[in-house]
Structure formats: C-alpha cells, structure tokens
Amino acid sequence: MALTTSNNTTALKGIFTPNMVPLDARGQINEAEFRRYIDWLIEKGVHGLYPNGSTGEFTRFTVEERRRIIKIVCEQTAGRVPVLAGAAEANTAETIKACELYYEYGATAVAIVSPFYYKLSPDAVYAYFAEIARNSPIGVTLYNIPMFASPIDITTLRRLAEEFERVIGIKDSSGDVAQMGRMVNAVRPVRPDFVFLTGWDVVLVPMMLMGADGGTNATSGVVPELMRRLYELASAGRWDEAIPLQLRMIELFDAMLGPDFPDGFRAAVGLRGFEFGKGRQPMSDRQEVNISQLSSLLRCMMSDFGVVDAPAQGCALRPLSGAALYPQAQLAQDINRGGCCGAGDDLDRTAREVTEAVLAKLRQRGI
Fold it and tell me: How many C-beta neighbours within 10 Å does residue 171 have?
C-alpha cells in the first residue's frame, strides 16, 4: 500500500506525533537536529508524524518556514510512516496552495484547523472547508480545537463527510469524550472509512473506547514508546491494562502542558538527548527560572517510567504519582519485551475493581 495517495484513510491510524521543531542559537530551524529527531521518533515506534500542528508552533513560523518544515519531514521520513501535514494558512487560497505543495512533497494527508481569530458561524465553517475540499488534491483532515478556533459542530461535520469524499477524517482536541461518541454516531453510518483522532493525550484510552482510531498526541514527542504502548493496549481491547498506564500518563502530561504551552514539552524532549533551543516566544526572567525548575520535576517523572536517569540528588516524593498502578520495573520490562501488563501483574486492587465495574456497565449497554 502506497502511503502517498490522494485519499488514504487506512494509513491514518495509531499515534501521530505533532513534532516540535528544534531551533539553533539564532532562533532558526536546526535542520540536522530536526532530521535526527524524526529518525528517533520513527525508531521508537510512532505510527506517523504531524508537522505544523499546535505543538509544532506553526503560527510562530513564516509561510516559507512552514513549507520547509513539511519538506524536511517528508524527505526524512522517506515513506517509512505516513505524514499528516498541517496546512492551515490565513485564507482558503493560501491553504489550497499548501495542500497542493504538500501533496507534491509526498504527504499522506493534510490537517486544517477551523478558522481562528474570527469566531465564525457553523455555515461559515462549512463554507470554508467546502471550498478547500473542492480544490485540494490530497485528503483533508478537519482539526477541531474549540479553545482556539471556531468549533466544528456535529451537523457541519456530518454534512462535510457526506458531501466531500476528500474530507477523510477529523482531529478533535476538545478532550470531550461524549462529543467523540456523538461524532462517531453521526458519521460512521454514512462514512465507515472516516478517521477519528483525538488530540487530547489524557483521554486517548476512553476516546478509543468510544471509537477513535488513535491520536495526535504531544506526549508521543517526548515518550513515544509509552504512547505507542498505550495505543496497542487499547487497540487490543485490554482496557483493564490500558487504564492504569493512562492514569500514570496524566501526571506527566499535566506537568508538560504547564502555563506556557508548549515550552514544557520542549524542555522534556531535551531530557531525551536533543538540543531544541529556546522557542520563539520570549520569556521573562521568572519564566526562565520556572522552566529550569520544571525540567528537574520532569526528569523525576520520566525516571519513574524508566526512560531517563533520575537526578543525582534524587527526587522528592510525589503523593499524587500514579506509579503504584504500573510500577517502573514492570513498565520497562513490558516495553523491552514488546508486551504489557500480564494477568499476574500487581496492579492496584482498587483501580482494577473500578475498571472492571465500569467495563461491565458499558458491556450491559452494548458498548
């Protein structure tokens, strides 16, 4: 199966990394480090890459830089994994140009955020995406992020899915599990091939339980092996094993999300051995200190997962840590052997009982 086709939905499943872009001391794209990072993500098992997304700070790059970012990713990926290219620009004409160019570069599909800054009506959102769908040579994934852009409601989503074959999926970053269920209910009956991805890392498991095909998750840019593990468990329907790992990931995600997204993620990926430099958003002296302190905390959290070494001075006890649900030694062993959470694992009894009760209720309801 070729990855570069005009309407490839089967490739858009799994964990897609909304990869960040390393910058050098002058604030310019560090291409060599970027290519090294791309190779590492693929080697660690992510299913695809998603450049020019929110985590990739697409609004802080010029048009020319955004195009260069996609070209680098497509070149370095070389067909090993699909590329979902962020193609949003300031208007439909420029967005369609980006779709055409990224198709030529070899992207699998494009992701286009709903119009932002101006809050538009559902009819205007429909007209925006309809114009792009009529003219794009490549499959279009809608990007719903209502905290920053005009929301894509259920009626508009179904209308676009029914009328335009070129609209192949949606990435939803609302974090609303019930809304994911509503979208699946509205669209799957008329478009069984339609792709649903969640952009909210802390609900990947419940979103997949509701029918999502995977996620574009910023955490996978820092701990790709853990996010792939989480996806594999959920895909296999091993919910009683996936949920404890999902609960552990919440603490790490919340710390990285922080007050100044995505600086926490940039700090965390530096702990994996990459030189990402400073982001383009200037920082105050207080923010610089906060990032330094955050890096120390993140090292402790990531050492709990066994992906980095703990600091020499040790780590303070974190009472809210979920490590008891999925101990570090067991996690490292599972990742290394490609398995996870056998029946004899010493999972927290309360978490298991709650999980089983929830799953039983869902099964009673036919879910």
Answer: 28
Q: Which two tokens stand for residue 267?
A: 């700090």
Structural domain harbouring 38: 14-237
329-332 contact pairs (CB < 8 A, 24+) = 331/226, 331/245, 331/305, 331/306, 332/305, 332/306
Whether the bond into 319 is cis, omega within 30 of 0: no
Task: Give SS3 for 132.
Answer: helix
**Cβ atoms < 10 Å from Cβ of 247:** 17
The answer to whether position 202 is within a domain reads: yes
Domain-embedded: residue 35: yes
Contacts of 74 (CB under 8 A, 6+ apart): 83, 85, 102, 105, 106, 107
The predicted model scores a pTM of: 0.86
Residue 173: Cβ within 10 Å count: 23
CA dihedral 53, 59, 63, 66 (to 10 degrees): -30
Angle at 330 between CA 324 and CA 336, to 5 degrees: 145
The whole-number pLDDT of residue 348 equals: 40
Question: Look-up: residue for tokens 């600086």?
Answer: 263
CA distance 49 to 17: 5
Within 8 A by CB and 6+ apart from 293, the residues are none
Indicate the number of domains in the chain.
1
Alpha helices (H) along the chain: 31-43, 63-77, 92-105, 122-135, 154-163, 177-187, 204-209, 224-235, 239-257, 263-270, 285-304, 328-337, 349-364
Determine the pLDDT at residue 341: 45
Contact partners, residue 304, CB within 8 Å, separation at least 6: 248, 321, 323, 328
Low-confidence ranges of the chain (pLDDT < 50): 1-5, 341-355, 358, 361-362, 365-367
Examine residue 42 and state whether it is found in any structural domain, yes or no.
Answer: yes
Q: Note whether 82 and 48 are within 8 A (CB).
A: yes
**Greatest Cα pair distance in the chain:** 60
Residue 178, domain CATH: 3.20.20.70
The answer to whether position 80 is within a domain reads yes
CA 314, 331, 308, 243: dihedral to nearest 10 degrees? Answer: -90
